[in-house]
Amino acid sequence: MSTIQDVARHAAVSVSTVSNVLNGRTDKMRQETLARVEAAIVALQFRPNTLARQLKTGQTPLLGLLVPSIANPMYGYIAREVETFAQEQYGYRVLIGNTYRDQEKEASFFEDLLAHGVRRVIVISSLADERHLERAVQRGMVVVSYDRRATPGETSEVDHVAPDNFEAARIATRHLIAHGHTRLAFATVAGMTMSRSNKIRGFHAAASEAGLREHACVVEGGPLNEYGDSVIGEVGRDLARQMVKAEARPTGIVAVNDLMALGLMAGLREMGLSVPRDMSLVGMDGLFLSAISNPALTTVQLPVTEMARAMVDRAMTRQSESGKDVGERVFTPTVLIERESVGPPPAIAQAAGTGSRKANT
Amino acid sequence: MSTIQDVARHAAVSVSTVSNVLNGRTDKMRQETLARVEAAIVALQFRPNTLARQLKTGQTPLLGLLVPSIANPMYGYIAREVETFAQEQYGYRVLIGNTYRDQEKEASFFEDLLAHGVRRVIVISSLADERHLERAVQRGMVVVSYDRRATPGETSEVDHVAPDNFEAARIATRHLIAHGHTRLAFATVAGMTMSRSNKIRGFHAAASEAGLREHACVVEGGPLNEYGDSVIGEVGRDLARQMVKAEARPTGIVAVNDLMALGLMAGLREMGLSVPRDMSLVGMDGLFLSAISNPALTTVQLPVTEMARAMVDRAMTRQSESGKDVGERVFTPTVLIERESVGPPPAIAQAAGTGSRKANT
DNA sequence: CTGAAAGCGCTAACAC
DNA sequence: GTGTTAGCGCTTTCAG
Q1: Residues of chain B contacting residue A233, judged by C-beta atoms under 8 Å apart
Q2: Are B140 and B119 in contact (CB under 8 A)?
Q3: What is the mean pLDDT of chain A?
Q4: B158 with B95, same domain?
Q5: Which residue in A150, B46, B75, B291 has the fewest CB atoms around it within 10 Å?
Q6: Could you tell me the pLDDT band of residue B318, with boundaries at 50, 70 and 90?
Q7: Apex CA B233: angle with CA A280 and CA B221, to 5°?
Q8: Residues on chain B touching A49 (C-beta within 8 angstroms)
Q9: How many angstroms from the chain centroid is the CA of residue B113?
Q10: What mean pLDDT do residues B60-68 have?
């Protein structure tokens, strides 16, 4: 690996001249010198060492990205968008960490980022407690969280970008209601986060609007263990069992996200129930997987690309010094993608002579 | 951020003493001094700056991980295992990059890694051409590739860790044959990689064993565009169409991977075909998603965790100087997970009086 | 316009 | 045993 010294020697100039061309201060430079330096750079295949540069400038073109588990397709999706945009727009690379929803792992990730000179982080946490994020900000980091802030009143030190989860759940729930469902359930996993509680509020709001608040319940599976997202099948089975044996079995289910909906489908099927004949199901996220499930999942599409870009922009634009221009940006999901997992509730279907054509053999 | 100087001052010792305790050279040190230094470190919340350290040592505890797209659940799965193991076992963080199967993006990722002082990389590439990897090795990197090497004869500069794709495909194909299938197809995407061609060889080998070589064809969809993996639904539809209109329609299909199998299921369903009644399907990978599909997918489970660990171990253990102790480690997948996507072929099913009970309405 | 020189925070000889 | 010191590769005043 050649150094700036080598280039300087090769071009017969001083290192600072080379440094100047490296940093674009070429305006007041003799053409010929510039050309010589550039030639030397090419000849020696010189690439400035980011590390040495950062030691001096205190900036390293690295973005931290913290996710519960990159094996979860939703986080994989977000991560891809974040990485691509950070790279193309800002020339940043991303340093990723799985936290398995563990407080300590999150904290340790921040420590390492700091040690690596990384000062910009995007956090997708399932932890309601944001104090460790605030602490990171105090230590000079710019942190952007993918969720609403917990305390809308207080000034937070961390930026927030999130989908309008309240609205997403409301849209999903209304869709079920529009199809005639009156016994509703919201399926989620143990552990409360802002996003989950907002979704539940949206679910309840839609139920209340329709005078169905009494018939809208929340069922909870899990929790997701350290293996997290691959265990979704079991959680779905759990939940399916819960719902099937409920005295007044719900007919329309809003799942906290697409993966849960997929797990639920599997669980329901194991219990001998068919979607949408016996139960209707709507998800939220809009994963590409929802399009190829059987039945294809009706879901609320979140604007993932836009949110990812907004997070990167926030992380890059803000100055770490001031905790001032911190904000919250909420993206409203507007698109409900209708596919096959929602139909009329069983009773209505029967009355209309559509359902129970094929009995469970 | 406090520095080693601050700590030295606080503990009233010299920086080298502090450096010594930081690097575990505490054996020939007075208890009391050690205690004082440690106290100072805690008091000042001192964390050594990795960058400065690396500038000196030429080593940075970062592992590069290059994947076609982290949104692909299989790569997400591998990435999670790699990250977790690298972190827990070696204290390394991982720097990730999506290459979208693009030669230039891969090259540019390597450039950046080099500039960041990263010298160890795990590459999951869909590019058959390995020259850019060799070049990276020449520049002092340790690179481990997730695939067989292209030229088993020649000495390669890059390490290889891979599943036994030949065997995996053979197991999958034999399973179909054992169920009575005689018209076989292998479903893949455009673009040839070592892993794909090995799978095809395994497929053909199993067919030949059973004297079915004549009835074993390869169908190809795609290619995966830059959005890659989210487009799998369309590819599946394509392929389904191809197979349905083939003059002698295959009854047993081996999919190049689970995602392809899932896409194919959706495509087949759209064409009015039912799995496994009309067609049997087996995947390879063992994604958690295969367990919750409908029907649940029969698949060959790859030892992902073991392979991820082997890759990390290789990347960490090898010395960058010598391109000598390079090797190839092939993991044999032994487990076929039987689920619901394989049944007898339609003709046999009819003869046995099991199938076509419910006609396509 | 270009060069010399002082560090950024840490490590590792080499002295004492 | 502990302190001094010379860099790692680069940026950035500050002279010339």
Answers
A1: 288, 291-292
A2: yes
A3: 88
A4: yes
A5: A150
A6: confident
A7: 160
A8: 55, 115, 117
A9: 20
A10: 96
Closest CA to A94 of B103, B214, B109, B60: B109
- Both A91 and A133 in one domain: the answer is yes
Percent of chain B beyond pLDDT 70?
Answer: 90
At B354, which helix (H) or strand (E)? Answer: none
How many residues does this entry show for chain B?
361
pLDDT at A106 over 60: yes
A228 CA, D1 C1': Å apart: 50
DSSP result, B20-77: HHHTT--TTS-HHHHHHHHHHHHHHT----HHHHHHHHS--SEEEEEES-TTSHHHHH
pLDDT, position B358:
39
Q: How far is A93 from chain B (nearest CA, A)?
A: 7
Expressed as residue numbers, the domain containing A144 is 57-163+304-331
Has this prediction a pTM greater than 0.85?
A: yes
Are B251 and B183 in contact, with CB atoms under 8 Å apart?
Answer: yes
Backbone angles phi, psi at A98, to 5 degrees: -90, 130
Q: Per mean pLDDT, which range of A21-30, A312-321, B211-220 is the poorest?
A: A312-321
Q: Which of A1, A93, A265, A360 to mutate to test the interface with B (most CBs of B within 10 A)?
A: A93
Domain with residue A154: its CATH number is 3.40.50.2300
Nearest C-alpha neighbor of A258 from the set A158, A154, A187: A187
One domain for residues B72 and B189: no
Q: What tens digit of pLDDT does each residue of B30-46 get?
A: 888 999 999 999 999 89
Using a CB-CB cut-off of 8 Å, the residues of chain B touching A261 are none
Q: Give the C-alpha separation, A275 to A109, whole Å.
A: 42
* Domain total of chain A: 3
Distances (CA, A) of A241 to A209, B226, B297: 29, 41, 22
Instruction: Calculate the angstrom distance between C1' of D13 and CA of A25.
Output: 15
Give A332-357 pLDDT, tens digit per residue.
987 999 999 999 998 765 554 443 43
Average pLDDT, chain B: 88
Q: Which residues contact B178 (CB under 8 A, 6 or more apart)?
A: none
Do B146 and B188 share a domain, yes or no? Answer: no
Say whether both B247 and B191 belong to one domain: yes
CA–CA separation, B108 vs B75, rounded Å? 20
Give yes or no: residues A159 and A170 share one domain. no
Residues B155 and B200 in one domain: no
